[in-house]
Write a structure and sequence with these properties.
nine-stranded antiparallel beta sheet, 3 helices, Polyketide cyclase / dehydrase and lipid transport
């Protein structure tokens, strides 16, 4: 799967565990309730997944989104512009985890920053949320996980 849309921000971290263990946690997606053992990055988001095996619909309170999974990718897409991608790759310390937020609006793409006043905070919010995910991954796998990007 290739990335879509315009990159708005990117954060990176390292999980000190083999790629296979990290993939087994982050890329495990199947129909059913989202939780610790299903679509781990969205475990705190809640909702229920339908579809599969590589493209799902997540029905959560108040909205739906698409979830795609591949050998090294978990992507979520919802609303008229948002796409979040998590990619994993080998790293000398274990596994590199990269999270990107992309603008995938098909029309009025230029208007996304104008109607979303929170864009000034998009980078810091994404970074903070990613740091929380890294902490959860490290705790779940019993290893260190650290943010690579600095403010």
């Amino acid at each position: 799967m290739t990335s879509a849309g315009t990159l708005l921000c990117e954060v990176r971290g390292v999980v000190e565990a083999p790629v296979e263990r990290v993939a087994g946690l982050l890329l495990r997606v199947r129909p059913g309730p989202v939780g610790r053992d299903n679509c781990f990055p969205l475990a705190e988001h809640g909702g229920t997944l339908t579809g599969g095996p590589d493209r799902f619909v997540l029905a959560a309170p108040g909205h739906t989104m698409t979830v795609e999974v591949g050998p090294d990718l978990l992507a979520t897409q919802g609303g008229w512009w948002y796409r979040g991608e998590y990619r994993i790759a080998p790293d000398p310390a274990g596994t590199l985890l990269v999270h990107q937020v992309r603008n995938v609006a098909e029309s009025l793409r230029w208007g996304v920053p104008l109607v979303n006043g929170f864009f000034r905070q998009l980078g810091p919010r994404t970074r903070d949320g990613f740091a929380v995910l890294l902490d959860r991954v490290g705790a779940e796998l019993g290893c260190r996980a650290r943010l690579l990007d600095r403010r």
